[in-house]
Inverse folding.
């Protein structure tokens, strides 16, 4: 029981932020986090030592199942709730990155979010995505390149894509 309390206290805010970046609002992000930790409790014997990537993987599968049953593409998250969590001088740049991120494929968006926003290593992102590290590195490289191309096409931009999306890992 102490093990569960510890991972819950340590990772609940991370899982909520993961949900906020993919869903419409704090309430549904908190519901997602609750479902993730319910799965963690039920499967407590399977939870690895590197808990956070495993929790993100559970959240990703729960969202995929939800979207599949809804037969709808997930809507874009309103930035207004995330701004309160991510206050910094580069908020305008973040908004531009988010807008261009929405133009990428879901696979590209996910690898960039995992490494850039969730601060996972490429190896941890590979765990979440269920692929090898080499595959994750290639996906990340290609996704960063596509995002940089989109941002470069915007004349008013002076983006630092690598700083917004986790830099080289």
């Amino acid at each position: 029981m102490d093990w569960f309390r510890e991972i819950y206290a340590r990772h609940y805010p991370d899982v909520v932020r993961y949900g906020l970046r993919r869903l419409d609002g704090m309430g549904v992000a908190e519901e997602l986090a609750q479902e993730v930790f319910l799965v963690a409790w039920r499967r407590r014997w399977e939870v690895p030592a590197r808990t956070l990537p495993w929790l993100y993987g559970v959240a990703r599968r729960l969202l995929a199942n939800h979207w599949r049953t809804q037969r709808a593409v997930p809507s874009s998250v309103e930035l207004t709730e995330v701004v309160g969590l991510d206050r910094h001088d580069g908020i305008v740049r973040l908004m531009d990155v988010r807008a261009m991120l929405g133009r990428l494929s879901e696979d590209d968006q996910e690898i960039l979010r995992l490494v850039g926003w969730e601060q996972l290593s490429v190896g941890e992102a590979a765990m979440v995505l269920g692929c090898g590290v080499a595959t994750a590195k290639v996906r990340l490289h290609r996704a960063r390149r596509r995002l940089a191309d989109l941002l470069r096409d915007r004349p008013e931009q002076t983006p630092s894509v690598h700083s917004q999306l986790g830099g080289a890992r």
